[in-house]
Specification:
This protein is of the alpha/beta class. It contains eight helices and seven strands, in the order αβαβααβααβαβαββ.
Length: 360
Amino acid sequence: MPDTPAPRRRRVRWWHTALALVLLAVILAAVFFLPGEEPAQQRRQGPPGTGPLTIVSIGDSTLSGEGTGTYTPDTDGRGGNWCHRSPDATIHHTDLPGVRRKINLACSGANTEHVRLTKARKYTEGSQAAQLREIAKTHRVAAVVVAIGANDDPRFSARLTECAKAYWGTTPCTEAMARDWPQIIDRMRPKVVQALDDIRTVLAEAGYRRGDYQLVLQSYPSPVSPDIPESLRSLDGCPFRVSDLKWIHTTGVRELSEGLRQAAEEAGARFLDLSRAGEGHEACTGGDDPSSEWFTRLTVRWDDLRDEVRASHATQESYHANKEGHRQIGQCLTEFLAMPEPRAACLAGPDGTLHAAPSE
């Protein structure tokens, strides 16, 4: 007997229902099993683990707080520790919503080996990446800010000292340096990448995904400028040749910054350019009134010269950001951490203070 219209309609509806179920299964499989963006219900709300939301600084003197003049007793020579960590360091001038702890692991004079997961020690302290591993056990790390590289092949602080000595010599200190500077930066760059990779490794081992935290590499400002009054190009403040000041302020610092930008890009880190952060506020540019300066002049801790152990560190603060310099950079860093752009530069705004400006 031929089918009646009613059963045919029922069969059609059955096949439609079956097809809809198959399509639904395919869609669910794509959402939950295929690679791609995590479903909203599976995304984490910030870093994993327990403990206070925390920002950590890692690296050398530019983040340790060198130049502020105030250091924690345990890092001001006690037991041979001269890391010079300061309560006025850049990290302590950041202000991020929800962040309850600010931890400074940076150590003056550190290079990439002292950050990496190596056995190298600086002023009695071991690997900063290994110290970060311990912090991640009891804190939720929201950001790691890094300043490293200048004490590797560039030897920036040592070269500034050489340039100061060259003031009384016959040859500008930067004459030979300029010839080799591009190769020096090229040798430094992979070391910085390795240090950033080790920081990533530590956090990955602690259960962090890259999206759980920010990794920021910052560059270096020029502490000196050719715009120094002639009267202060001496032991009274900044004993440098004008030609050396010009090269340091423009070519030297900016090429170093470009090398660090490339390292950040290779490591998948964000990058904050400080190469022009001190313009108009470098050491000695204020003349008779140093209150406008964000960097220390030639600084001698005279009391330390009376102590045989401390004497070799008596000038350690020279040509570093002072308290105001650290405050200004901290303000700029705060803005950058709140921005979505991968790169920015710290530049003076109309109000005369540093702000983060997105850069290419």
